[in-house]
């Protein structure tokens, strides 16, 4: 098997979704890895986490059967190793309910938790701005509340990532000319 970078692998796997979700979607893992660059102090020592962060949603977004999922996971393992494939596998939870995803977060390895933190940072930054055409204010706020529940479950993993999540979550978002809190005040 010919090696390609994790970034190229995820781009290739997402080609079928490009028209449906746009080019920005392919940047999602790139922006996630940028957050790891800024806020994860062990990042330089752990290339496996970086590679898995590029690939974190490949199984969720590009496989449609258990057999295909297994094939893609085997491909990831052959190219990037068993540790990277393990991280990608453990953070794959698209078929689970939101409550189950909160429970599953507790069981993640430290590397899986780091990736999940970076993913939730991106999510609370991205969802309020790039989903306005399909979500209303209440749905955006519900998504941010859920992200906070996931992060609260894994707090203690990395203070810098957690502080960045809190900073972005505290920022307001604009919807149809009005400003809203991501977590509504009671």
Structure write-up:
The chain is mainly alpha-helical. It has a single domain (6-180), classed as Hypothetical protein af1432 (Orthogonal Bundle). Helix content is 69%, strand content 3%. The chain contains 11 helices and 2 strands, in the order H-H-H-H-H-H-H-H-H-H-H-E-E. It has helices spanning 6-14, 18-21, 23-39, 47-55, 58-62, 66-80, 82-91, 98-107, 110-130, 137-153, 159-170, and strands at 173-175, 178-180. It has a two-stranded antiparallel ribbon. A hairpin with a 2-residue loop joins strand 1 and strand 2 (178-180). Helix 9 packs parallel to helix 11 (159-170). The termini are far apart.
The CATH architecture can be given as Orthogonal Bundle
Rg, Å, rounded: 16 Å
- Spatially, the strands of the biggest sheet line up as 1-2
Low-confidence stretches: none
Q: How many strands, which pairing sense, and closed or not: the largest β-sheet? A: 2 strands, antiparallel
Can you identify the CATH superfamily?
Hypothetical protein af1432
The CATH class turns out to be Mainly Alpha
Count of the separate structural domains: 1
Average pLDDT figure = 82
Number of helices: 11
N- to C-terminal distance: 55 Å
Question: By helix and strand content, what is the structural category?
Answer: mainly alpha
- Number of strand elements: 2
Helical fraction equals 55-70%
């Amino acid at each position: 098997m010919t090696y390609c970078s994790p970034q190229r692998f995820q781009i290739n796997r997402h080609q079928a979704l490009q028209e449906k979700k746009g080019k920005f979607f392919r940047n999602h893992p790139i922006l996630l890895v940028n957050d790891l660059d800024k806020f994860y102090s062990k990042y330089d020592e752990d290339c496996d986490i970086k590679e898995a962060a590029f690939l974190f949603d490949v199984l969720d977004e590009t496989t449609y059967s258990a057999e295909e999922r297994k094939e893609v996971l085997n491909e990831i393992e052959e190219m990037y190793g068993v540790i990277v494939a393990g991280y990608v596998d453990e953070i794959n939870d698209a078929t689970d309910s939101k409550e189950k995803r909160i429970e599953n977060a507790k069981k993640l390895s430290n590397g899986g938790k780091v990736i999940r933190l970076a993913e939730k940072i991106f999510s609370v930054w991205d969802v309020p701005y790039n989903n306005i055409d399909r979500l209303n204010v209440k749905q955006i706020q519900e998504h941010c509340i859920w992200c906070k529940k996931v992060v609260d479950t894994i707090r203690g993993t990395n203070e810098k990532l957690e502080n960045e999540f809190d900073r972005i979550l505290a920022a307001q978002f604009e919807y149809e000319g009005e400003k809203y809190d991501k977590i509504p005040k009671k």
